[in-house]
Amino acid sequence: MRVKHLPLSLLLFAAANLVHALEPGNVHPSLTEKFVVDVGMYFPDRTFEIHVDGSGAGGNPSIVFEDEFGLNKSDDTFAIDFGWRFGKKWSLLAQYFESSGSRSAVLDEDIEWNDVVFGEGSNAAAGQEFSMARVFFGRQFETSERHDFGIGAGFHWLEVGAFIEGDILVSGAPNEFSRESVKAEFPLPNVGIWYRYSPSRKWAFKSRFDYLYAKIGDYDGSLVNAGLGITYQVFEKFGLGLNYNVFELDLGISRNDWRGEVKTTYAGPYLYVSAYW
């Protein structure tokens, strides 16, 4: 009889634990605490492509740095997220990461950059740098204790730069050293949404999505910044989390010192520790 009733006992035990998990107040602290900080390492796959117009009618082709110079297509970089609830329905969210790399290579073909031609067979060096800081103000609309849904607006502060240096072609022969570089710093506004759900005190699932497509001053293009992840409470004020984050930028630039475009994508896991208070 005891064996016969074992499945029923297990079912009742599981149901009792589920009821306990769903009791009011038994929610992950990332949905309830005033401050939340996530600090960790971001491991994205990366592409970095730049186009710099020359004076010719056809312009210059785009340069994909990972392909042309053998830059690593994967990266590992420090990243941080911060959240502050400063009212019953209002939040301030922030995010930051940066990436850079450089490498020398013997060119398999001519590379043209702003009317300067780096010759096939010559030894050239190239590098890229990128940083992104996001500030976002949002309002919560979901009133259920276990659900946190909201929308808002903010901006991304972006810094993008790249260089190529090496022998250039003069009258068809490489006989002169040159360094060509571009750099830009600019803000891009965006709108976004987020959703978080906590089935228990220990677990929370979260997602967010930011988007921009507009022409703003010297810049024209699109931006996507999204994340999907899960976090686990290890101690009362600390936890561990894993996200899959995606950042995409496809932007035309019309400045005096840089006319062209930049396309870059970062997509990969973000492993972090959390603190709540």
What does this structure look like?
- The chain is about 10% helix and about 65% strand.
- It has about 280 residues and is mainly β.
- The chain has one domain: Lipocalin (Beta Barrel).
- Strands 1-4-5-8-9-10-11-12-13-14 form a ten-stranded antiparallel β-barrel. Strands 6-7 form a two-stranded antiparallel ribbon.
- Strand 6 (about 110-115) and strand 7 form a beta hairpin.
- The longest helix is centred in the first third of the chain and has 16 residues, at about 5-20.
- The model is unreliable at about 5-20 (pLDDT under 50).
Give me the secondary-structure topology.
Elements: H1 6-21, E1 35-42, E2 45-52, E3 63-64, H2 65-69, E4 77-85, E5 90-106, E6 111-113, E7 116-118, E8 123-140, E9 147-170, E10 173-197, E11 203-216, E12 219-233, E13 238-254, E14 259-276
Antiparallel strand pairs: 1-4, 1-14, 2-3, 2-14, 4-5, 5-8, 6-7, 8-9, 9-10, 10-11, 11-12, 12-13, 13-14
Largest sheet: 10 strands, antiparallel, barrel
Q: Averaging pLDDT over every residue, what do you get?
A: 85
Could you say how many structural domains there are in total?
Answer: 1
Instruction: Report the radius of gyration as a whole number of Å.
Output: 25 Å
> What fraction of the residues are assigned to beta strands by DSSP?
over 45%
